[in-house]
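The protein record quoted for completeness.
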Amino acid sequence: MKKKLIIFIIISVLIAGTALIVYINKTEPSMCLKNYFKCLNDKDYEGMYNYVITDLSKEDFITRVKNIYEGMEASDINATVITNFNEENNQDIVNITYNNSMKTIAGSANFVNTVKVKKDGEEYKILWNSSVIFSELKDEYKVRVTSLKSTRGAIYDRNKVALAKDGEIYYVGLVAGKVDESTDLDKLSRLLGITKETIQKSLNESYVKEDTFVPLRKISKNNQETKNELLKIKGVLITDITERVYPYKEAASILTGYVQEKEGKTGLEYAYNDRLKGTDGEEIYIIDESGNKVKTLIKRDVKDGEDIQTTIDIEIQKELYNKFKEDRGVSIAMNYNTGELLALVSTPSYDANNVALGLTDEEWNNMQNDENKPMYNRYLSTYTPGSSLKPVVGAIGLMNNSFSSDDDFGESTDKWQNSDSWGDLYVTTMTKYSGEANLRNALIHSDNIYFAKAALKIGKKKLQDGLDKFGFNDKITFVQDISKSTYGLMDSESSIANSGYGQDQMLVNPIHMAMIYTSFANGGNIVMPCLEYTETKYYKQNVISSEIADIIKNDLIQVVEEGTGKEAKIPGKTIAGKTGTAEIKENQQDQNGTEIGWFNSFDENGLLIVSMIEDVKERGGSHYLLPKIKSVYETYK
């Protein structure tokens, strides 16, 4: 009974307290305060003035209140009265203590304040001064709102070398009051690459006054010669600002992408944007007449962006870029044991610094209309693989027991068709050779006819199933969107045959191609490509047996030792590889088509390189790539 009595008393006290607060909030002085804050929430500043007694004019009152609350972006402003009592010496004055809450640009605020409310005739009004807004705020003080800028995370290579980071640049502009007829706007236009009309329009904006700095264009700190020339022009002012910079320019710009207006637009800047970008903070505080901070009222802390350390080796990235920078193509370097991507190169390229700093419309249009597509990311697209696919077809044949590696497919010839039903369609090959037409010799000499026959021996269903096992028609999980590798319909015997040596409707993504070749290099496992390494992950383990992987690997070594890839041979070093020249033409009689060249290779130390160059016709086909890739292996022994 005693316990129940105690509970009853507690509940009664709580009910009484709630009732008291409700009563307090309904008294006339409290209603005056409530109406004041209702007007404030409605931004009815004139209405607020009707509930105050103040020395300020209506205009000054409205300006003061409006500037402070709207400067803070205050909303959902509420006042709940806590206590309400008369002054001992003046019953017409009531002291009201209340809880004030609001949302602001810097976050939510909740604080207790006290005001005096005086009876004025039949009504109560607030004896108003600036402390009604914040208790520490005096009439001579001001409220300041400051944005606290966050730092975007940097993108690093595997050795913590910055590929993209925040850095200092120049902002070039004019001080309006210093511009006169002697200011050489023509020279300024030429140096900045913007029209004279654009400069004059900026100077004539309504906000511009005598001392206004009119910003015109950002330039890199590397442009010291341009900076010196600009400073000779009367009225020019150059300031330092923080902006995104890309130290390796064209060599890594397609990989990194670029940032505009604090958001990643392309490349890794876009893919990792949510992790890289920080969250700005805000601080609302009071300053005195001298500008000294009196008190911080509300603060949202800055959260800087996360740094991303990738697996890229910028030295290999630069090496591959420099080898092929004039070509339209792709070069990928990968550790075939771990899946770490060491280089992702797409050429030709562009300088992300120029885009981040801001291009003129003419510069942007020129870049977009360039037939070489310098902003196009080629390693995310697909291409006809040609003979570079032959090891895959060979492996599928072996794992399905469609033939053995020693089976002889018949005497080498320069053209072949399976039956008269093919009409004028023949499979041709570049070079006839003596000896058995087995898998080893077919890879060494890149025999199209052997692999056309191999595809037919495997059969459509098993060939497609085998390609699917290697990852065709599958969406590869990657930080960027990789196009699927596909093999088309294979809707005729000749189509199946042509698919056997990487033609017909066959399309392969270069990153996927690198994945496939890891299985030949590491004993049968396809590793997942990664740009952030934690542990080795596999796309598929034992996609082929270690025995089959070794057969293909040893044959590919012979391709470099004595076959079509021998221009990449390095004495004392073991390189396995496969060349591939894919024909892109309307039909077999087309003489105007182009050719795509491939060289897929790996060494004994874990380095795998896949390179593809468009339009190698009359430049040696795939042989165009061999000396270039050879030099990379020589550099990274």
